[in-house]
Amino acid sequence: QRDGQAVLENVSEDGQELSGCLGRHQNPGHALEAGWFLLRHAIRKGDPELRAHVIDKFLLLPFRSGWDPEHGGLFYFQDADGLCPTQLEWAMKLWWPHSEAMIAFLMGYSDSGDPALLHLFYQVAEYTFRQFRDPEYGEWFGYLNREGKVALTIKGGPFKG
Fold it and tell me: Do residues 78 and 64 touch, judged by C-beta distance below 8 A?
């Protein structure tokens, strides 16, 4: 959407942008997850033009907008117009978007050999293994606050088994 400058979470049935906060809603983790699905498709098709498009629009674009420049980590939700998202947990850092980003960047690097993608993999991996890991009992905590501190001590649940 927006001339290729935004991956929106919700669009109309005919692919048009919706009005209001629902239409401006972005989820960097979902965009990155879709990116590596699309990247697999491009690789299987043997289509380097599609691969380049996917890397640019579904890996790099959501990462650049979703990475917190102040504290590191990927925001859970964003607003495409830079307004405060309506979801109260918007600034939290969740385990799964970071996993999706590592998969996407390593897959992109593996296929393209672009060292910038490997650098982004290491950037996300460094944050993830430093912030989410429980140094005392192992495993990852699932939910951090914006500053990267553990927000919830649970390690499992309906979405993280």
Answer: no
